[in-house]
């Protein structure tokens, strides 16, 4: 059938046939330029997540331990989403869920403490000024009014109770000299004086001491913003952990002559599964609520972490094809190493977040 020359593709201006709705040259669906809202929304989702048949095949296969890794090294690269992309997308979704659920809870706890601390700081400043100027204030009154004013101020000063110490105490270590430097900063000064003034007043000299001093003050003043800031850095921690875990797997299976990238891809696939399951756990606890009527949600939330551990063992046995005993010992060593790497990376992330906050 000949193309209808009066009908052209609006994208590439290629002649379109009378049959079919898609251009044989560029693949775009024929349109007069107007599209429904649903099409616009789907195009956006598809462009961001590329939700095609490959995506759904990947989601199904990821729940079978080791399947994605085995198929990938059989050359079936186009059948599933690439390991790096799968890992990155699931990591982003996981930490976004973590931020949405855990972030507000931590922010509220830190904010309440921050407000109480700031309130005490300014209240102390008011009380200090009141004590210093009590006599001059009383002079504004005469006779019985003066006596009443003095009694009122004394009563106020006696009744006011503070929730915490009036100063922030902390220590820092000078890396070059190894000297322990102790610092004391009054809360009222922390909230009313510039950082540079506080540095000069406390005679903080070395670069390292100044950096630590300023960051401690900033963290204490803006502690309510700290949780979301740290959560935003956790994804980079996990990304940097992947090569370290691949090295551990390389050493565990050094006789198998596998490439480093094979172990890295195994780590990508396993963590993609773990991110999905942990996201499900967080959603279960978040929407499960409290009370005995939601006990099923809590039981399921406790079982799923065990599923992740079992998944790793089965995946290792299937991918690396060793016996039960060998796989078990290597699995145990990998989990111990993972715990060590995770704790070290987490502490490093907290420290880096502290310096960058």
Strands, total number = 4
Q: Which structural class matches the secondary elements?
A: mainly alpha
Biggest sheet: strand arrangement: 1-2
Average pLDDT reading: 74
Question: What low-confidence regions span 5 or more consecutive residues with pLDDT below 50?
Answer: 1-5
Radius of gyration: 31 Å
Walk me through this protein's architecture.
This protein is mainly alpha-helical. It has 2 domains: 160 residues, no CATH class; 99 residues, no CATH class. The protein is built from 13 helices and 4 strands. It has a two-stranded antiparallel sheet with strand order 1-2. β3 and β4 form a beta hairpin. The longest helix is centred in the first third of the chain and has 50 residues. The protein is extended and about 100 Å long. The N terminus is likely disordered.
Topology:
Layout: E1 3-8, E2 15-17, H1 37-49, H2 53-62, H3 67-72, H4 83-132, H5 134-138, H6 144-159, E3 167-173, E4 180-186, H7 187-192, H8 195-201, H9 207-221, H10 226-252, H11 260-288, H12 295-320, H13 324-356
Antiparallel strand pairs: 1-2, 3-4
Helix pairs in contact: 4-10, 4-11, 10-11, 10-13, 11-12, 12-13
Give the structure's gist in a few sentences.
The chain has helices at residues 37-49, 53-62, 67-72, 83-132, 134-138, 144-159, 187-192, 195-201, 207-221, 226-252, 260-288, 295-320, 324-356; strands spanning 3-8, 15-17, 167-173, 180-186. With 357 residues, the chain is mainly alpha-helical.
Keywords:
357 residues; 2 domains; 68% helix
């Amino acid at each position: 059938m000949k193309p209808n020359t009066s009908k052209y593709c609006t994208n590439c201006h290629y002649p379109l046939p009378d049959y079919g709705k898609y251009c044989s040259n560029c693949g775009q669906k024929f349109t007069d330029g107007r599209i429904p809202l649903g099409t616009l929304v789907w195009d956006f989702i598809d462009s961001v997540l590329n939700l095609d048949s490959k995506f759904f095949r990947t989601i199904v296969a990821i729940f079978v331990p080791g399947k994605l890794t085995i198929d990938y090294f059989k050359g079936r690269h186009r059948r599933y989403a690439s390991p790096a992309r799968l890992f990155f997308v699931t990591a982003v979704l996981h930490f976004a869920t973590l931020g949405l659920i855990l972030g507000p809870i931590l922010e509220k706890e830190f904010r309440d403490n921050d407000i109480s601390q700031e309130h005490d700081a300014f209240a102390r400043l008011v009380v200090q000024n009141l004590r210093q100027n009590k006599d001059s204030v009383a002079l504004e009154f005469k006779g019985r009014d003066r006596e009443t004013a003095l009694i009122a101020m004394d009563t106020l000063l006696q009744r006011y109770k503070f929730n915490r110490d009036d100063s922030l105490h902390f220590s820092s270590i000078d890396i070059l000299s190894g000297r322990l430097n102790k610092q004391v900063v009054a809360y009222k000064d922390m909230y009313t004086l510039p950082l540079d003034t506080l540095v000069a007043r406390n005679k903080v000299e070395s670069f390292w001491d100044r950096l630590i001093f300023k960051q401690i003050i900033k963290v204490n003043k803006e502690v309510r913003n700290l949780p979301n800031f740290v959560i935003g850095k956790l994804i980079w921690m996990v990304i940097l952990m992947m090569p370290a875990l691949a090295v551990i797997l390389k050493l565990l299976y050094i006789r198998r002559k596998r490439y480093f990238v094979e172990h890295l891809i195994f780590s990508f696939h396993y963590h993609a599964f773990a991110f999905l399951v942990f996201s499900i756990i967080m959603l279960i606890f978040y929407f499960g609520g409290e009370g005995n009527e939601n006990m099923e949600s809590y039981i399921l939330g406790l079982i799923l972490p065990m599923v992740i551990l079992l998944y790793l063992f089965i995946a290792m046995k299937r991918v690396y094809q060793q016996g039960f005993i060998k796989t078990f010992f290597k699995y145990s060593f990998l989990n111990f190493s993972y715990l060590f790497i995770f704790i070290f990376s987490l502490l490093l992330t907290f420290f880096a977040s502290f310096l960058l906050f």
